[in-house]
Write a structure and sequence with these properties.
Length: 514
């Protein structure tokens, strides 16, 4: 993991491989490039002509744009990296946290192979320092476990040519200021756990199955003082978890339900997070066609997000009780697999007619939601790569939010926006519920084709305990980035929803849960 420090040192005298500065577009169509605060020493060394030099090199200040140029005379760093922040803010306003995160992430990605970089981006307070730190730590992520020959303990550079940026120094930070130190500690904990989620999502399914995922959760729980309970296939059968068992029965890798419990002695509220953990989704008997199954190792992204968020809450010592439920199964076709037309009796006692075995995520979540409800939490939030319909509706970077309470849905949306995760509120239209009526069971796992993401949300609502506030995050779009990296987001697993869940836990601890 990239090391992170705060420094008040002058930029010219700092020894590093590069110094990162910010540039922006002039506001409202104004001409010229703007050098952002924090880069004054660099601009001075260029006799105030830095903006002109960068424009000559083609820099525009566009968000995420990276321009490299030699450092000026008198600097101990050989390289200046100018990263775009987008449009310059209006007078008396500052650069937004997300603009700083993305700029820091883009710079960190451009610095693979470097040992140390000084970041001189605009910092007006501790929150800005935290945003830059988070962006840099997330941008420096790399997943190299399977690249090259067995490394026998060698570092990532031996496998991938260039190792991630090893050390980041934030210039303009205040090393002795409590608020700055707290912001850096928070950014470090959240980024490390989000990167843990990315690692899990990127791990191939021949190495990550329900049992191995549960073992990793047990190890992390022990390290961070989190209570853990793992229900294996025998315990699931004894308890009547028909949804999880029905999905996992076709696989040689048996399912698991993992409960992670973080508690704080001063907690007044209890949150439950529930994550879909399909470690590989073939579609089961309703087999996915070629072109739709190559990335299905990412179908456990919801469970990875929940796992990471609970550990982050523990590391931050938040004054709230947080329970995480990981519903883990592998959805495979075989002679023992659930068939379309089968009826499952769920943990809640309701029966479900399975019309499509590729609508399996809602089945494992239904059991976990009902289990979470038995603890009587103040709110439940489930996270899942649930429907292709949500990707069609919102694209590949935005997750949908559904809830049984409009105020809580707004709270979740505000938390997502605050941490820089694009999200959008979605309805639960009552008229779509009728499409799941079954002549054989209490409910079917499929309904109307149009509005399929909303239908899935309505199905899940059936398994939330009465009187419990609940929200559903469908992260099918942003969970796995099949395109090129951008900002602090890498190709592959992204860790979507981790920061939203952590922020919800922080708001709850502060008594601000809507």
């Amino acid at each position: 993991m990239t090391a992170l420090t705060l420094s008040t040192a002058a930029a010219p005298g700092l020894r590093a491989d590069a110094i990162v500065i910010g540039v922006a577009k002039s506001p409202k169509g104004g001409a010229g490039l703007v050098v952002a605060p924090g880069a004054e020493a660099v601009d001075k060394a260029y006799d105030g002509r830095l903006a002109g030099v960068l424009e000559t090199l083609g820099a525009s200040g566009a968000e995420g744009e990276v321009t490299k140029l030699p450092a000026p005379a008198g600097f101990k760093t050989p390289l200046v990296i100018a990263v775009g922040l987008g449009e310059e803010p209006e007078k008396d306003e500052t650069y937004g946290a997300e603009a700083l995160r993305r700029a820091a992430g883009a710079a960190a990605r451009a610095l693979f192979g470097a040992k140390k970089a000084a970041f001189a981006l605009p910092l007006t307070d501790a929150a800005d320092a935290g945003a830059v730190a988070e962006g840099a730590l997330l941008g420096a992520y790399s997943f190299d476990t399977y690249k090259g020959a067995a490394d026998n303990g060698k570092d990532a550079k031996a496998k991938n040519g260039k190792a991630p940026l090893a050390e980041v120094t934030l210039l303009g930070g205040k090393p002795r200021d409590k608020a700055y130190k707290a912001a850096i500690e928070r950014a470090t904990a959240v980024s490390q756990e989000l990167n843990r989620a990315r690692d899990l999502i990127n791990t191939p399914p021949n190495d990550l199955n329900p049992q191995s995922f549960a073992a990793l959760a047990q190890a992390a729980a022990k390290e961070h003082g989190i209570k853990v309970q793992v229900l294996d296939e025998k315990a699931l059968e004894k308890g009547g978890y028909g949804g999880i068992l029905g999905v996992g029965v076709g696989s040689a890798a048996a399912p698991r339900l993992v409960k992670l419990s973080y508690t704080h002695s001063k907690a007044a509220k209890h949150l439950a997070f529930v994550g879909k953990g399909i470690t590989y989704d073939s579609g089961g008997i309703s087999l996915k066609p070629a072109g739709h199954n190559e990335t299905m190792k990412c179908d456990m992204s919801g469970a990875a997000a929940v796992f990471a968020a609970v550990v982050a809450a523990a590391r931050l010592g938040l004054e709230v009780n947080v329970t995480g439920w990981l519903a883990l199964a592998e959805n495979m076709p075989s002679g023992s697999a659930t068939r379309p037309g089968d009826v499952l009796r769920m943990y809640s006692g309701k029966t479900v007619e399975v019309l499509n075995t590729d609508a399996e995520g809602r089945l494992v979540l239904a059991d976990a939601l009902w289990a979470a409800s038995q603890d009587g939490p103040d709110a439940i939030v489930d996270v899942a790569t649930l429907t292709g319909a949500m990707v069609l509706a919102l694209g590949s970077r935005t997750f949908g939010i559904m809830a049984n309470d409009d105020a809580f849905r707004s709270t979740v949306l505000e938390a997502a926006e605050e941490v820089g995760e694009p999200a959008w509120p979605m309805p639960l239209p009552e008229h779509l519920r009728k499409g799941m009526d079954s002549p054989t069971a209490d409910i079917a796992n499929m309904g109307e084709r149009m509005g399929g993401g909303l239908v899935a949300g309505l199905f899940l609502r059936e398994f939330v305990g009465e009187g419990i506030t609940w929200a559903h995050l469908d992260i099918a779009g942003p969970a796995y980035n099949e395109g090129g990296p951008f900002g602090y987001t890498p190709k592959g697993g992204t860790g979507s929803a981790v920061r939203t869940l952590v922020r919800l836990a922080e708001l709850t601890a502060a008594g601000d849960l809507g």
